[in-house]
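Project outcomes to date are best conveyed with an example. Our students and postdoctoral researchers have been running inverse folding experiments weekly, and each run begins with a structure described purely in C-alpha cells. The record below, which covers 280 residues, was selected by the lab manager from last quarter's runs and is presented without edits.
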C-alpha cells in the first residue's frame, strides 16, 4: 500500500518521467536523493556498457525481425528510456526505401579518406595505402542522368598527388551501423581532351554519428563486433540490460513509493497482546 507520508504527486506523471529519464520522476516528486542515486547509477551503468562496446551495444532489431530473442535483447535495453529509444528511429531509417546507395548527391562532400590506390600509366605503376582528403560532387553521367564525381588529394612519399575520379563513384548507403562509409571509384587521367582509365581506389570516409549510432546490425556485423571486442561485448550487453531492469524498479518506486517502512510502525500483534494482559 502506498505510504501517505510521501507526496508522490501524480504517480502516472512520475512514472512516465522515471521511464524517460532515470531519476526524473523522483526529481518531480522532490525526492532528490533518490533522483540523483537512480540517475547516476542507472545511466552510469548503461553508458559504461555503451562505451565498453565502442558505443554499439544498443542494437534494435531490423524491421520485420521475427526472432523473439533479438526483440527481447533490445526490450531489456529499452527499459532505460530515452537513451535507448533513438534506436526506434534508426530502425525505421535503416529499413526505409531512401536508405540505399546514392546515384548522386545533393551537395558536395569534403571528407578525410583512407584506403588503397592502385594506379598505372605509361610512366609508373604503384599500389599504396593512403590517407588524404576526398571531394565528392554531383555530376552528369555519360549517358544522361546524374552521378557522383570528384577528386582525391593524398601525400605519397612526401609528394602531393591529386587524382581525378571518373563520374561513376560508388558510395555506400548513408545509414548503417559502421562508422565508416565505403567509397569505390575509378581514377581517370585527361589525355587529348578525353579521360582515360588510370586505376582505382577503394576506401572509406567517416559516417556521421547520427547515421551509425544505434542502427540495427545484420548477423555479419554482429559477428564482426564480437571478434573486435571479444568478452567485452558480452559484458557490455549485460551492463545495458541490467540498467534497463533497474530502471523498471525505479519506475515502480516512483509510482508506488518505497517498498519498505520507516521503522516507526507499531506492531499490531504486540499491541493486541499487551492490551489483553492489561485487561486481565
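After processing, the design step wrote out the following sequence:
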Amino acid at each position: 500500500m502506498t505510504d501517505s507520508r510521501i507526496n508522490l504527486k501524480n504517480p502516472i506523471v512520475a512514472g512516465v518521467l522515471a521511464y524517460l529519464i532515470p531519476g526524473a520522476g523522483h526529481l518531480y516528486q522532490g525526492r532528490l536523493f533518490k533522483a540523483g542515486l537512480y540517475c547516476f547509477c542507472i545511466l552510469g551503468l548503461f553508458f559504461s556498457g555503451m562505451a565498453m562496446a565502442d558505443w554499439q551495444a544498443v542494437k534494435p532489431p531490423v524491421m520485420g525481425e521475427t526472432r523473439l530473442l533479438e526483440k527481447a535483447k533490445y526490450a531489456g535495453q529499452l527499459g532505460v528510456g530515452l537513451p535507448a529509444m533513438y534506436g526506434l528511429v534508426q530502425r525505421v531509417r535503416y529499413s526505409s526505401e531512401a536508405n540505399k546507395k546514392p546515384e548522386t548527391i545533393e551537395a558536395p562532400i569534403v571528407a578525410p579518406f583512407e584506403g588503397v590506390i592502385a594506379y598505372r600509366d605509361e610512366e609508373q605503376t604503384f599500389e599504396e595505402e593512403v590517407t588524404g582528403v576526398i571531394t565528392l560532387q554531383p555530376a552528369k553521367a555519360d549517358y544522361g542522368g546524374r552521378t557522383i564525381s570528384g577528386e582525391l588529394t593524398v601525400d605519397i612519399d612526401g609528394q602531393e598527388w591529386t587524382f581525378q575520379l571518373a563520374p561513376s563513384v560508388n558510395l555506400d548507403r548513408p545509414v548503417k551501423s559502421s562508422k565508416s562509409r565505403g567509397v569505390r571509384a575509378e581514377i581517370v587521367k585527361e589525355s587529348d581532351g578525353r579521360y582515360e582509365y588510370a586505376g582505382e581506389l577503394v576506401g572509406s570516409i567517416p559516417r556521421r554519428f547520427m547515421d551509425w549510432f544505434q542502427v540495427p546490425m545484420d548477423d555479419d556485423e554482429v559477428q564482426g563486433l564480437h571478434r573486435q571486442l571479444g568478452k567485452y561485448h558480452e559484458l557490455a550487453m549485460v551492463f545495458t540490460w541490467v540498467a534497463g531492469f533497474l530502471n523498471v524498479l525505479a519506475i515502480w518506486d516512483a509510482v508506488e513509493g518505497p517498498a519498505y517502512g520507516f521503522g516507526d510502525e507499531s506492531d499490531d500483534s504486540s499491541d493486541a497482546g499487551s492490551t489483553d494482559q492489561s485487561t486481565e
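The two ends are 35 Å apart (CA to CA). The domain at 109-210 is CATH 2.40.160 (Porin). The training component of this project remains on track.
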